[in-house]
Amino acid sequence: MLEGGMSQTATTMTARRDAFLRTVAERRALMGILNVTPDSFSDGGRFNAPDAAVVQAKKLVADGADIIDVGAESTRPGHTPITAEEEIRRLAPLLDALLTEVDAPFSIDTYKAATARYAVERGVCVINDVWGLQRDPAMAAAVAETGAAVVVMHNRDNVDPALDIVADMKRFFDRSLDLARQAGILRAHVMLDPGIGFGKTKVQNLAALRATDRLAVEYGLPVLIGVSRKSLFGLLIGADVDARLIGTIAANLATLARGARIFRVHDVADHRAAFAVWDAIEHG
């Protein structure tokens, strides 16, 4: 243990958390997706082995990723939920290698408090919760007690086409932020995600994307957009999973113009190039 009772892992986690949050405050950030699942819709089964996961994580960093988001449970529509024990079993062979061999901040894509604690204890610095602290009653306390930053994502169990989705998002975020406050999570450690593709119709997904600026202004928190290769682009342009890059970039550029700060993507290098062109046009 170091002076003050903090372990080296905790000290490194805190430093990486703060460095990532500074990046988000200063400029947009790219979050590279690393799924270590057998059944994710785009890359399931490709990076389950430690060597393959490390190689892919290093590639994402070399391509320009500011943080790597590791997920061990698919949350695609129709997925089969797994227990925290199974999620941790999938992560156990991988996390230590990733955190030791890859010089980058990591986030954990989970809605389970036990998995979140396990990951942060090994050095992960952001918890990316697709249920916004509302599915696992222990999650808010886990975030507060570990000191990790957190992405609060809007989600719904059921699709309701008649719903005003932006109003529903705001109700959801208000509750999540209240849970965060009660648990003692610093507001400066919170990011919001409108949850594209989760419990929404095509029209509602588009409305949620258009509301990026409203969320950013009204909450004063960084907004993360996660649309990479999603089925929305199949509906809009008839593209299968491997042909959705252009739709993904178009959506991310539209939300970049509306104030989004973090972009969760599979194709980091392509987004870095697209954003460079956008910068040249907007800022010279």
**What distance separates the N and C termini?**
49 Å
Q: What are the segments in which pLDDT stays under 50 over at least 5 consecutive residues?
A: none
Helix fraction bin = 40-55%
CATH class descriptor name: Alpha Beta
In the sheet with the most strands, the strands line up as 6-5-4-3-2-1-8-7
Summed up, the helix count is 12
Looking at CATH, which topology would you report? TIM Barrel
Q: What proportion of the residues form beta strands (DSSP E)?
A: 5-15%
Number of domains: 1
Kindly report the average pLDDT value: 93
Task: Say how many strands there are.
Answer: 8
Largest sheet: 8 strands, parallel
Q: Which architecture name does CATH use?
A: Alpha-Beta Barrel
Radius of gyration: 18 Å
Helix-strand pattern, N to C? HEHEHHEHEHEHEHHEHHEH
Q: Determine the CATH superfamily.
A: Dihydropteroate synthase-like
Q: Judging from the principal axes of the Cα atoms, what is the shape? A: globular
Structural class by sheet pairing and helices:
alpha/beta
Question: Summed up, what is this model?
Answer:
This protein has helices at 8-26, 50-63, 84-91, 95-101, 113-121, 139-146, 165-183, 202-210, 212-219, 231-237, 245-257, 268-283; strands spanning 29-35, 67-71, 106-109, 126-129, 149-153, 190-193, 224-225, 262-265. The protein is of the alpha/beta class. Helix 2 runs parallel beside helix 4 and helix 5 packs parallel to helix 6.
Descriptive account of the structure:
This protein is α/β, with parallel strands linked by helices. It has one domain (3-278): Alpha-Beta Barrel (TIM Barrel), CATH 3.20.20.20. Helices cover 48% and strands 12% of the residues. The chain is built from twelve helices and eight strands. The chain has helices at residues 8-26, 50-63, 84-91, 95-101, 113-121, 139-146, 165-183, 202-210, 212-219, 231-237, 245-257, 268-283, and strands at residues 29-35, 67-71, 106-109, 126-129, 149-153, 190-193, 224-225, 262-265. Strands 6-5-4-3-2-1-8-7 form an eight-stranded parallel beta sheet. Helix 2 (50-63) links the parallel strand 1 (29-35) and strand 2. Helix 2 (50-63) packs parallel to helix 4 (95-101), helix 3 runs parallel beside helix 5 (113-121) and helix 5 packs parallel to helix 6. It is globular and about 45 Å long.
